[in-house]
Amino acid sequence: MATVGGNLLQRTRCPYFYDTASRCNKRAPGAGCDARDGFNRYHAILGASEHCIAVHPSDLCVALAALDTTVHTVGPHGARAIPFEGFHRLPGDTPHVETVLSAEELITAVEIAPLASARRSMYRKLRDRSSYAFALVSVAAVLEISDGVITTARLALGGVAHAPWRAARAERVLLGAPATSDTFRRAAEAELAAAVGRRHNAFKIGLAQHAIVDVLEQLASQGGAR
User: Fold this and answer.
1) Considering just the CA atoms, what is the radius of gyration of the chain in Å?
2) Phi, psi torsion values for 25, nearest 5 degrees
3) Mind listing the pLDDT tens digit for each residue in 102-143?
4) Between β-strands 78-83 and 69-75, what pairing exists: parallel, antiparallel or unpaired?
5) Which of 91, 204, 197 is nearest to 99 (CA)?
6) Residue 2: its pLDDT value, please?
7) Strands ordered across the beta sheet of 78-83
8) CA angle, corner 180, sides to 178 and 181, nearest 5?
9) Which residues, other chains included, contact 157 with Cβ-Cβ below 8 Å and sequence gap of 6+?
10) 106: left (phi over 0), alpha (psi -120 to 50) or beta
11) What are φ and ψ of residue 103, in 5° steps?
12) d(CA 42, CA 181)
């Protein structure tokens, strides 16, 4: 049976990881990465490395990344409370090491702080078909507005990176700025400025920008203001 902890520890849906005839640094460190020059429609545009361009497949983790979440663990050296943003690792040169958990640690709880602003939140998932499909791009957002100015902005992306991606650059643009479509566009462009598209997935850059703007506009018009 699926568990919340198991969801956090999902590996990837990269077909080259599952195809043992393919080179995959995540499956066999040092083997190479066939996804880089292969069919990479579903692969990362942010935070990738020359060793791995796989994405984390979870929907739940994207929402947790946008909230004030803590992962509690226990192991031989005692208990730990790990901020969610520091739980998953980007690939670097060790893509087979996906989280900061040690082999002896067990997740005991996932704690979400009671953020009042999270009542004004949204999750949007864009995919190739309407059901049973992993995200090409997903957006989780929290937005709070006072007198036309953004006072709280929390934003995370899925389907774009090896880990759930907290959109810190976009948040910095949003916070304290007027809640307008122009601000939302500038925030989306700032976040995707470092994105690297490949042969089959470059479209994700524009798709992610449009998704961010659309979600923020909806939140602003449907309950982001107070």
Assistant:
1) 18
2) -70, -25
3) 999 999 999 999 988 888 899 999 999 888 889 999 999 999
4) antiparallel
5) 91
6) 76
7) 78-83, 69-75, 106-112
8) 145
9) 46, 62, 137, 138, 139, 140, 164, 165, 167, 191, 208, 212
10) beta
11) -60, -25
12) 28
Q: Which of 6-10, 20-24, 114-118 has the lowest mean pLDDT?
A: 114-118
Query: What confidence tier does 172 reach under pLDDT thresholds 50, 70, 90?
Result: very high
- AA letter at 187: A
The Cα–Cα gap between 130 and 7 comes to 21
